[in-house]
Amino acid sequence: MSLSHAILGLLNYRPATGYELKAVFERSIHFFWNANLPQIYRTLGDMLDRGWLEVKVEHRDGRPSRKVYSVTGAGREELRRWLAAPPEVPPPRNPLLLKVFFGRQIDRATLAGHLRGWRDRHAALLARYDREIAPLIRQYAALAGAEGDARYWELTLDFGRRFSRMVVDWCDAALARITGEEQGRG
Amino acid sequence: MSLSHAILGLLNYRPATGYELKAVFERSIHFFWNANLPQIYRTLGDMLDRGWLEVKVEHRDGRPSRKVYSVTGAGREELRRWLAAPPEVPPPRNPLLLKVFFGRQIDRATLAGHLRGWRDRHAALLARYDREIAPLIRQYAALAGAEGDARYWELTLDFGRRFSRMVVDWCDAALARITGEEQGRG
DNA sequence: GTATGATATGTGCGTAGTTATATATGCCTG
DNA sequence: CAGGCATATATAACTACGCACATATCATAC
Fold first, then answer.
1. CA–CA distances in Å: residue A35 to residues A2, A24, A121, B72
2. Contacts of A14 in chain B (CB under 8 A)
3. Distance B89 CA to C18 C1' (A)
4. How many CB atoms are located within 10 Å of the residue A100 CB?
5. Mean pLDDT of successive 10-residue segments in chain B (186 residues)?
C-alpha cells in the first residue's frame, strides 16, 4: 500500500488534516499518485492503528472538529524503510493503447479522435508544467528548509515533461500514419 | 472493467480457452494490459453471464476438459461500442517517482540504485522489442488476414520504444544530477 | 521411478480503490 | 435571503485485482 507511504512523506513536511492532505496531493504528487477523500480518511485511520501517526483534535464550537495528523517516530522509521526498499513495479494498464491495438476494428475517424484527445491532454499538461508547476517549485525552493527538497521535486517535473512530450510526439506520428494510410496502401 | 474488453478483442481474432488467453496476453498486449489466470477465468464467467461469449466444452477422457470461448453477436457489438467510446483515463501511479519526490530523505546511493534499476529494466525492454516483438509482428503481418491488424500493433510497439527510451534518458539525467550534486552545491 | 514443467480448471480471502451518500458550518455572490 | 462553494468529517456498497491454494493429467528429463 503506497498510499500510506505517500501520506507519511507529505505529513513529514508538516502535520495536516485529511482534507488538507487532499489539497496537498492535488498541487504536488497528484501527477504520479493520487487518492480521493474517503480513501485518505480510511488510510489515516489504518496508519493511526499501526502507530505511524498521532492525532491532535482541534475542537471548534459548533463546527466539526479538525483532526490534525502528524508522524510518530515509528512512522518516520517506516517512511525511511519504505524509501530504501526497491520500488514496486505496478503492471502497466493503458486503455488507449488497448484501443489502438484493436484499432483495425474502429473506423479511422474515431480512432484519430481518441489519439487527438490524448495528445491535447498532454499538450495542456506541458503548458501547465511551465505556467504553474515550475514556478510553484521555484517559489518553494526559495523558502528556507525546502531548497534541498526542491531539487528532487524538479526531477519528477522533468519526468512529467519528458513523458507528455513523448506522448504528444507519438500521437502525432500515429495520427500521420493512420491518416496517411488513405493515400498509401490503405 | 477493461479486462473483459481486452479479452473480447483477443477472442475476436480467434476462439481460445482461458489458459490459452493467458499465453496470448503474455506475447501481445501484456506490455500495456495484463491479467493473471484466476482473474481471466472469473472474467470469462462474467462475460458468459452477460451473453458476450459462448463456450464449447471439449471433453477429453480422463484429462480435464477444455472450455473454448468465442465471441457472440452481442459480444462483437459490445466490443465495437467500447472501442468507439473515449478511453478511460486511469489515475497515474508511479512508486518510483514517489520515492524520487521524497528523495531528500534517502541516501544518494540508495536512490541512485532505484534509478539504475528502472533504467536497466527499460534498457532490457528496448532490446526485447527489437529482438523479439518486432520480428513477431512482422511474422504475423506476413500471414493472410493479419496484415491490417499488424499496422496497429506496430503503433503500440512504437509507443513502447519511445516510452522506454524516454525512461532510460530521464534516469541517466537524474543520476547525473544526483551524482553531480557532490561537487556542485551539494 | 521421480521430479519438474506445461496444460487445464477453478475457489477463497484479502487489499486497494471508486462512487454514492450523510452531516454540518462559514463565506461569498447574485 | 437563496444558492453554491469551500471546509471538514466520515460510512456503505461495490468493483477490480492479486496471492495462496486445490485438483488433475501428460510429457520430459534425470
1. 11, 11, 20, 38
2. none
3. 14
4. 26
5. 95 97 95 96 96 93 85 97 96 97 96 98 97 95 90 98 98 95 47
